[in-house]
Amino acid sequence: MNIALVIIIVIAIILAIFGGLNSALSWLLWVAIIVGVIALIAFLFRLISGRNRA
Question: Which key words are in the record (predicted)?
Answer without folding.
Answer: Membrane, Transmembrane, Transmembrane helix
